[in-house]
Amino acid sequence: MKIKYLAIVFTLFSFSCANAQSSQINQYVIGFYNLENLFDTINDPTKNDEEYLPNGAMHWNTMKYTNKLKNMAYAISKMPANLAILGVSEIENRAVLEDLVAQPSIKERHLQIVHYDGPDLRSVDVGLLYNPAVFKILHTSSHRIKTEIKNFITRDQLVVTGLLDGEEINVIVLHWPSKAGGEKRSIPRRRDAALTTKFLVDSLFAVNPKAKTFVMGDLNDDPIEPSLMVHLQARGEKRNTHPQELYNPYYEIFKQGIGSLGYNDQWNLFDQIIVSYDLLPKNLDDFQTLKFMKAEVFNKDFLKQETGKYRGYPKRTHSGGVWQNGYSDHFPSLVWIGKYAKQ
After folding, report:
1. Could you give all domains of the chain from N- to C-terminal order, each with its CATH number?
2. Among 136, 148, 180, 310, which one has the highest count of C-beta atoms within 10 angstroms of its own C-beta?
3. Which of 250, 287, 283 is nearest to 269 (CA)?
């Protein structure tokens, strides 16, 4: 009986593989990138941008800004050509994103922008870049964190709904509060940020129980932390993920020792893209609709510091206040999704 059962399973597996190979799958890449303080050089009286002005602490000038734009655009240009959506963080305003997408290395991608001005004390926001040839915007909104912590102000959370390959998907772009002031003191801030995100996710499920949702961002916590596992309830294993729940593919990546930023001689994986249950394929032939395929940290060699104490870490714009002409202190994160092409 056991031999017969195994034979049936093998036959079904072989059929599914043959079917998958004979059918073309349209693949799309969805990513997130912390652009590390992408500020312009213009003084905005309504923002705390003094550090990134010509007479500020970083001596931020046209040459540095121009190089920063060129470097960030180059990094994006090296991402797969089928990049459909890229969430971003640490941007000063919409204007810097307009300057970014106009860079020669990515200009032909015709990336469009979603951005709202937020209340952050450091004057950095989140945003979204997207390819309008494959992703059609239906609705966008920006949401303040729900908290009772006195004088707590941080980045808003961006929700974008649109059509990708004819299917409705939701993207939530985040930059949760940092560990500034110490780990213990900052935990409640990320707890409230996670609970706000959970509320947004549940609101989308209330409208559509099978909502296909991507939760992405610099979460300032690793996948194993309570903010992710307890408050957001992002599962680390597919088998433990149920309808109207979230699966975090970066849990296993982190367990393998891979990170998106280095600090104090250790790797952290703060930059994550989490997917909802209905994006998970149930079998090898379950790509009639958009499904999750794989995830990675985009840690290519050109993004790394080549020498010195921080060799192998992300090559950042500044280190110790000294301009490095690098990219970002974070590596991007990418996920692939796919769907059978119409015959």
Report:
1. 26-340 (3.60.10.10)
2. 310
3. 250
